[in-house]
Write a structure and sequence with these properties.
Shape: globular
CATH architecture of the largest domain: Roll
Number of domains: 2
Order of helices and strands: HEEHEEHHEEHEEHH
Helix content: 25-40%
Strand order of the largest sheet: 1-2-4-3
Structural class: alpha+beta
CATH class of the largest domain: Alpha Beta
CATH superfamily of the largest domain: Homing endonucleases
Strand content: 15-25%
Largest sheet: 4 strands, antiparallel
Number of strands: 8
Distance between the termini: 45 Å
Number of helices: 7
CATH topology of the largest domain: Endonuclease I-creI
């Protein structure tokens, strides 16, 4: 079905994780050939490259509206028409941020995909409650598309016993939405999604105690 490709198109834990990164923090060029992934986390860009089995050079770019407050970002861009067509076939498109919706992700790899989404454009909040010795957790996932977050929420509900989660404006008038989970559901979700071989260490480190015997 697909022509020769730089990326081996075969579902696996790592492949699904990389698709999650593309869905949240990646970009499909309008030329229908190039895929771009940019992040402030160099580790995440290297993970992305590793998971897709490519060796394209990681570049550096500056982001920010104020030239005196620019953020250094890391970027990998590659040309792969075959992989591009595959991404479109599962539901991704150029300029996807506000139109993203349901994606065709195999059920057995959904949690790996979700981990990629959270590492790409989510947060795992860890705070101390003054009346409890246990950390308070809250997972949040951000998107300019409420349809995408609603689909994620429904998939999570169908594939687990999680009934919670709510969608709201991240910042009023910002046109960015967030899907949030309270502590109990966040713990359940973390135990479903985490694979230590393929995750962003910065987000895994504060919650790794959940997986220790």
């Amino acid at each position: 079905m697909y022509r020769l490709s730089k990326v081996k198109i075969e579902w696996s834990s790592k492949f699904a994780y990389a698709i999650g990164l593309i869905a949240t923090d990646g970009c499909l060029s309008g030329d229908r050939r190039h895929i771009d992934f940019t992040s402030k986390d160099e580790e995440l860009v290297l993970k992305f490259r590793e998971c897709l089995g490519i060796n394209n050079k990681v570049g550096i770019k500056q982001r920010g509206k104020d030239k005196y407050k620019m953020n250094t970002c890391f970027r990998v861009q590659f040309c792969d028409t075959n992989f591009y067509e595959f991404l479109v076939a599962i539901g991704l498109t150029p300029a996807k941020s506000k139109t993203l919706g349901k994606l065709s992700i195999p059920k057995e790899y959904f949690w790996d995909f979700l981990r990629g989404c959270i590492d790409g454009d989510g947060t795992i909040g860890v705070s101390k409650h003054p009346e409890s010795i246990h950390p308070q957790l809250k997972i949040r996932l951000y998107s300019a598309s409420s349809k995408f977050l609603l689909w994620l929420k429904e998939e999570i509900k169908q594939l687990s016993d999680l009934e919670g989660g709510w969608i709201e404006d991240a910042i009023k008038s910002s046109r960015v939405y967030k899907l949030s989970f309270a502590k109990k559901d966040s713990i359940k979700l973390l135990r479903l999604i985490y694979n230590q071989d393929c995750c962003l260490s910065r987000k895994y480190e504060p919650v790794k105690y959940l997986f220790q015997n």
